[in-house]
UniProtKB/TrEMBL annotation:
It comes from Bifidobacterium catenulatum DSM 16992 = JCM 1194 = LMG 11043. It comes from the Bacteria. InterPro entries: Metallo-depent_PP-like (IPR029052). This is Ser/Thr phosphatase family protein. The lineage of its organism: Bacteria, Bacillati, Actinomycetota, Actinomycetes, Bifidobacteriales.
Length: 251
């Protein structure tokens, strides 16, 4: 079985805090209450203001160990030792190579693959690949694989029929949608325009930290952790999600 995820952000204080992994119970409860009763964006704004007003830092208030343990435990609960796990970028940030390797070696899967994200600075220097050659089978900026996907009709709409087709994997959504307004997406899209895929076919991506799997269009799926309850998503789940678009189109 193949599984996919993105944006693990091991060692990243800001993302850890924004996901609600805070080391103070009262602060965590208040933050999550704002998230649930208002919006995620309101919670993000509140915790950033808290850090500013209290002259503290995200590193001081976040619980990196619990964040990493949750992600790794969820992966190991779902992904088998002989399965494949594709991590679509932003593996870690502001931590050592040793810490990144420690996190990866705790994942009980022998077939790990990495698609490089904008925070994966070690992997931008491709001679550093050798540091990770005992944990990753492949390391790429972009990759295509075959999987069971819906058939499109003559008008380009998704049908319930399926067949083996090629699907692309990138850390970024497709270039044609990267510049569009999408709520709380990262606003610095232009920095990554030269990295975003130009394909208009099937696409799996991360980067945006959306809290839903909805892609930028019916032929793409966001596989980021924030959209899938901090769990990896299987190829069957991806197929089911795409086929559900057929029902949406017919309404």
């Amino acid at each position: 079985m193949r599984y996919f995820t993105s944006d693990t952000h091991f060692g990243h204080p800001l993302v850890t805090a924004l996901r609600g992994f805070l080391n103070n119970g009262r602060l965590r409860a208040e933050y999550l209450d704002i998230w649930q009763t208002q919006t995620r964006a309101a919670a993000h704004a509140w915790i950033k203001q808290y850090v500013h007003d209290n002259q503290t830092s995200f590193k001081a208030i976040c619980d990196i160990a619990r964040h990493e343990n949750t992600i790794i435990d969820n992966i190991n609960e779902i992904v088998g030792h002989d399965d494949e796990l594709w991590i679509l970028g932003d593996l870690s940030y502001r931590c050592t190579v040793e810490h990144t390797l420690e996190c990866l070696r705790r994942i009980n899967c022998q077939h790990l693959h990495l698609i490089i994200g904008n925070h994966d600075r070690n992997f931008r220097l491709r001679f550093n690949d050798m540091l990770y050659e005992d944990v990753f089978e492949t390391i790429d900026d972009y990759c295509e694989i075959d999987m069971e996907l819906p058939v499109l009709d003559e008008s380009g709409k998704i049908t319930v029929a399926t067949t083996q087709q090629s699907i692309a994997m990138s850390h970024f959504p497709r270039l044609s949608t990267l510049a569009e307004e999408h709520g709380d997406w990262p606003s610095n899209w232009n920095e990554f325009a030269d990295m975003a895929p130009t394909t208009e076919g099937w696409l799996l991506y991360g980067h945006t930290h959306q809290d839903v799997p909805d892609g930028t269009d019916p032929r793409s799926v966001n596989v980021g952790l924030d959209a899938w309850d901090f769990k990896p998503v299987s190829e069957q789940q991806i197929l089911a999600w795409l086929v559900s678009r057929c029902a949406d189109q017919s309404k």
